[in-house]
Amino acid sequence: MSDLALDRELPVGSAGRASVGWWGVICLIATESSLFAYLLFAYFYFAVQLDDAWSPHPPPVFLYTLPGVIALVLSSISAWWAEHSVRRGLRLQQLAGLAVAAVLGIVFAVLQVVDWLAEPFTLQSSEFGSTFYTITGLHLAHVVVGILMLLLLLLWSALGYFNASRHAAVLIGLAYWHFVVVVAVVVFLCLYVVPHLW
Amino acid sequence: MSISQLERRPEIATATVAYGRGLDKIWETKPGLRGWFSTVDHKEIGIRYLITAFIFLFLGGLEALIMRLQLAGPNQHLLTPEQYDQLFSTHGMTMIFLYALPVLSGFSNYLWPLVLGSRDMAFPRLNMLSYWIYLAAGLFMYGGLVIGAGPNDGWFNYVPYANRTYNPGLNMDFYALGMIFLGISTTVGSANFIVTLLRTRAPGMSLNRLPILVWGTTTASAANILVVPSVSLAFFLLWMDRQFGTHFFDVSQGGQPLLWQHLFWMFGHPWVYAIVLPAMGIVSDGLPTFCRRPLVGYTPVALSTVATMIIGFGVWVHHMFTTGIPNLALSFFSGASFIITIPSAVAVFAWTATIWLGTPVITTAFLFFASMIPLFVIGGVSGFMTAAVPVDWQLHATYFVVAHIHYVLIGINVFPVVGGIYYWFPKMAGKMLNERLGRWNFWVMFVGFNLAFLPMHITGLHGMPRRIYTYPPGMGWHALNLVTTIGAYLFAAGVLLLVVNVISSLRRGAIAGANPWDASTLEWATSSPPPPYNFAVIPTVASRHPLWEDRLQKPEVRSSVLEGMVLDHGRETIGVTPLDGEPDVILKMPEDSFAPFILTLGMIAGFVGLLVHLWWLAGAGVAVVLLAMAAWLWPRRKLGQIAAPPVTDTAHV
């Protein structure tokens, strides 16, 4: 017992990364990363098995998705800025950062739907189409959940729930958002770029 | 909450009756239906998990008994082929998904906060959610069978059999959506175990002082987090193929049936370890108590638990040796399947040595734990045999494999689980199980099990394929099958004795007291059954065996159960650093909540909507889920999630 420092001041409640929620979101990210890893496994399994017959002609267009992904990356930066601001108790910057992040997320979502309408293949046209729409669809679902979460964080911030000492929800929510953005980049490279190189 | 309350020096004191009374008020669940639907007490959740899992065990057992009647002799026609298909598929689904892991989650949910010296799991509401979803998914998956559309392509459900062309009913849709549903329960439960292990332990409980059960469940949970998405995805793709005309498994459009097998077994093999490692942990913790000495080789056992799981990720193709995959892959996965016997055998030697070097006290629990060793060896060796590719080609899809899986699942799961019931029932109920009836319970189960499944190896060697609904006379399988059927009924009678024992002991059992077995770990330091708050003060841990320190340790090494942190400003427990168990934060724990139940109702609506194509219902379900989540996650001052605005703060002070 002597080597343990029991008798000292400890934070109470959800204090930043000491909160259990932070560790929970890491588990969430781990399991969701696995989901996308298995999706990409299936995607490349088809590629390897079918080889020449795999990629559709013409390959997917990235006229809409490329700007969408760039918007998401910017959104991630904006979210990081919001997080940086809440740690310093800068309320206005925090609100602005979250709002910009949410708007850029919506831009991506809209562009993804536009892209779907522009693609020459469909969900039923071949296994490529099936995989393509399933992966982008599941990712878009994650983006939509992320946008709803950003809006909630924005509301909670506007209600003055967070300051420099208590803001675990912001850290946790934004960790999920950064994850969604990373997946977007990986999905973009695999689904939109690789077929052009195949 | 004022700013000053965002930091606090925990009061250190000796537990008194008054503290207990105060904590009772803070932690107790409200009586009646309201409490029943909103409780988040891990002990209540653990017991519900155990009872529900046992009900599924009985259902799965009944299905097996009906099949054994059918197979007792040649040319039996008790069941039609379609009924037989649904029975063996439902039997597999029930035992593997609805019994084997949930029963271990039951033990872990009940025991973890007690053995870790905490007041609850890291996420109490998530814990309740995982139970509600488990129950809902289990009922959903049985819904098909009830209306005559149970799964009928085996529990691993190979395409193209499961494609809509060959299986047009709702059977596979119940199963596919049900598995995705159940996967949510497994995932949130696993995340809860991982974070609980990392953060909510008693101060001083460093990683090298964890009970092996905790190692087993943690390892299994980490694996589940990584592999459950694989099977959920496989079933999702299958459902898409069936309902929306996609082509994942449809050969005519470039689909790949083997992709199903890869996705299924990338999950399926690690899952085997997920449903045995915690059970091995039960034996590693329970057996030494009756050998009156610590487990021999704690560190190798803990490390080999993790090593088994890691290698377990790389052996899935041994389920697919007959699919015509390349030789290189065959050799690699065959080799990996041989290597995995090394870490998985470590525990066998450790248990044997513990019995050898200890002074065993023969109780029913000891018998169940000790008998698991030879059963594990038999199941392990038959698995090891089929790791050899040519042997596997010969034995694939025969009753040899059926015998193997039952030695693994009954030997390494059911026997430790029943032993665990005998061991921990006194803690849960405050009463002892009857030892005399216990001996009958053990011997009837042990003899029945071996009578049923040992001859089954020979049935398989004689070439009887699995999943056939009947067989002609003159194949040389009749006598063996009859013996198996007799053994199966004997085994079932043994399980029934357990039920009889539990029910009669609940009424008339001897009072257990806090530590009836004179065991060494923290759960035995509190009363039986434990109070809602587990420990009046948070214990401080100084060794691996806090209750055996007077006989194992130098006088200066003493854990403290009666003196420690008080933490009674509302529901609180201590959060520690992940590796060393140093106090890090005072965690505010949530009150009882209806959110998990409402969220589950939303999910039920969602999945039923998807099943019957009522899209508005599915949409309404999603809306309920999102609203319940928003309410659940809404930051609360009481949980220290909100910083008070400075103005009102000064007003308060």
For the structure shown, list the relevant keywords.
heterodimer, A: mainly alpha, 5 helices, 73% helix, elongated, B: 653 residues, mainly alpha, two-stranded antiparallel sheet, disordered C terminus
Describe the protein:
The complex is a heterodimer of chains A (198) and B (653). With 198 residues, chain A is an all-alpha fold. Chain A is 73% helix and 1% strand. Chain A contains five helices and one strand. In chain A, helix 3 runs antiparallel to helix 4. The longest helix of chain A is centred in the last third of the chain and has 32 residues, at 127-158. Chain A is elongated. Chain A starts with 9 loop residues before the first strand and ends with a helix. The mean pLDDT of chain A is 93. Chain B is globular and about 75 Å long. Chain B has 21 helices and six strands. Chain B is mostly helical. In chain B, a hairpin with a 6-residue loop joins strand 5 and strand 6 (583-588). Residues 645-653 of chain B have low confidence and may be disordered. The interface between A and B is large, with 57 and 74 residues. Strand 1 (10-11) of chain A pairs antiparallel with strand 1 (7-8) of chain B, so a sheet runs across the interface.
Q: Structural class of the helix and strand makeup of chain B? A: mainly alpha
Q: Distance between termini of chain B?
A: 10 Å
Mean pLDDT of chain B: 93
Helical stretch tally of chain B: 21
SSE arrangement of chain A, N to C: EHHHHH
CA distance, first residue to last residue of chain A: 63 Å
Largest sheet of chain B: 3 strands, antiparallel
Shape of chain B: globular
Which SSEs are present, and which pair or pack?
The complex is a heterodimer of chains A (198) and B (653).
Chain A: E1 10-11, H1 20-50, H2 65-87, H3 91-118, H4 127-158, H5 168-197
Helix pairs in contact in A: 1-4, 1-5, 2-3, 2-5, 3-4, 4-5
Chain B: E1 7-8, E2 12-14, H1 17-27, H2 32-38, H3 42-71, H4 81-115, H5 124-146, H6 171-199, H7 212-244, H8 257-274, H9 277-291, H10 298-312, H11 327-339, H12 341-357, H13 364-387, H14 389-395, H15 399-429, H16 435-461, H17 478-508, E3 538-540, H18 549-552, E4 560-565, E5 572-576, E6 583-588, H19 595-612, H20 615-633, H21 646-652
Antiparallel strand pairs in B: 2-4, 3-4, 5-6
Helix pairs in contact in B: 3-4, 3-5, 3-17, 4-5, 4-6, 4-15, 5-6, 5-19, 6-7, 6-19, 7-8, 7-9, 7-10, 9-12, 9-13, 9-15, 10-12, 12-13, 13-15, 13-16, 15-16, 16-17, 19-20
